[in-house]
Design goal:
There is one protein chain. About 25% of the residues lie in helices and about 25% in strands. The chain is of the alpha+beta class. The protein has a five-stranded mixed beta sheet. It starts with a strand and ends in a 6-residue tail after the last strand.
């Protein structure tokens, strides 16, 4: 199982801050995003290709090619701006 965490706007849109899902031995971030997108509805909107969503695996900023293994934490959050 991996722990998914959702922050800020994404947490509000999905109406959840976390969940656990099973993964196979050859998963990566893209695999997880595809699974979430396949849920349809708001999930496919939040994780659509044209949306800016950042991801961190075990608290390190990652990209879609980052491998995921059992016990990992995968966090999704919107881009942060400052000024």
């Amino acid at each position: 199982m991996i722990q998914l965490r959702f922050f800020a706007r994404i947490r509000e849109q999905l109406a959840t801050d976390s969940e656990e899902i099973p993964v196979d031995g050859h998963a990566d971030v893209e695999t997880v995003v595809t699974l979430l997108r396949q849920r349809g509805g708001i999930w496919s909107e939040v994780f659509a290709n044209d949306q800016s969503v950042l991801v961190a695996v075990n608290q390190e900023v990652s990209d879609v090619r980052t491998p995921i293994k059992d016990g990992d934490e995968v966090a999704f959050f919107p881009p942060v701006t400052g000024g």
